[in-house]
Amino acid sequence: MLNATQVKAVFARLVRDAISARGYQRNVTVKSQGPAVTLKIINRNGREYSVDLTLAIKDKSWPDDAEEWSRRRRNGWPTQSLVQEICRDGCHLVAKQPKGGNVPEHEKGFLWRYSFSAAEKNLFLRGGHGEASSCRKQVLRILKALKDDLNLEPLKSYHLKTMLFYECEENPHPSQWSSICLSDRFLGLLRRLENCLLQSKCPHYFIQNLNLFERFNRQKCSELAKRVQKVISQPEQVLINLIQ
């Protein structure tokens, strides 16, 4: 059985060896965090950049846990042909141990996590809203900026992207994502975020019975929901402040 912890340790060592062989130790530091090996890079001007490298093993089959996604009833987004193509392409496995749970400590090192990064990229690039006038990526950028501006920890960008995919299913026509609809889509996502926080529940986009907020503190979720509610009461002003 392939040990995920050991595989990741070997990958991190190979990255460190490659950096050392090229003499970059003074400009690059390596840190192993989650499923990724993170490089902190300082350029000649003293600016710092962060790059995540993640070892992913290709699984050519579509997971049984995500079977519902392939059969989900939709109103046109994504198209059935794209759904079938994504399922045929399978997914990836990354080395990340679960937090808590009922898994014995000595078995955690052998657990792998599904990664749907390739499927998510396909949805963004070929999901039917890729026209130049689409505001989808802009809405996501604004939400990420809002998350940082309001300090909405422990929310992560992945949670926002998940909600965006659900919003795309609910608003499947490209005209609903034209630039003139930016404020409507922004407000719709804020309301979805508020609802998820109030329920302490954000279903994974591909595996709906997996709650991404499962380990969130309910009181913290309630506090974040109140911050989002304030934004909902004056979305235009918030948009102006974030876009400027």
TrEMBL record:
Span of domain Mab-21-like nucleotidyltransferase: 2-124
Similarity section: Belongs to the mab-21 family.
Key word ATP-binding present: yes
Coiled coil: none
Limits of the Mab-21-like HhH/H2TH-like domain: 135-230
Cofactor entry: Mg(2+)
Keywords, ordered alphabetically: ATP-binding, Nucleotide-binding
Protein name per Swiss-Prot or TrEMBL: Uncharacterized protein
Molecular function GO terms recorded: ATP binding; nucleotidyltransferase activity
